[in-house]
Amino acid sequence: MSMKPSTILKKLTILAGFLSIAAITAPVQASGSYISCSMDYKLSGWSFVVRHYDGSGNVTCSNGQRAQVKLRSRGVGFTIGKSDLDGTGYFSELKDISEIYGAFVALEGHVGVIRSGHGQVMTRGVVSLVISGTGRGFDIGVTLGGLDVSPLDQ
């Protein structure tokens, strides 16, 4: 089976285009223009149909930037409980620490009595946040809600 010269030329042009894009973007990705940030946090609150948790956190980034943040978690669903949560969160790659601020959305299922573990994946556009840790208290339910991250002085 033979190919027409025009078909071969089209495939080579497409391949050259992909290689050119890869060559242009590779130095940008390798230049380290993105940073990684983690957050240690504490939340406490209650839920009865509505989830209402408040707390604070300390964010540390790979480029040395730091921030103290205020956390506010709200949700609605089938839920009941009262607990205190301590944990660590990891943000997806960021260009600057200012990208940590805003409302992250999540669908959450939770159950715990006395001491329990918790974990959640949240998103805000291209930025994601994964949190996990331990809790004290009791809770059970499924909620749709999110977490607002703002500067501590607000």
UniProtKB/TrEMBL annotation:
Keyword Signal: yes
Keywords on record: Signal
Presence of the UniProt keyword Signal in the record: yes
First and last residue of the signal peptide: 1-30
Domain of life of the source: Bacteria
Protein name: Secreted protein
Protein's organism: Nitrosomonas mobilis
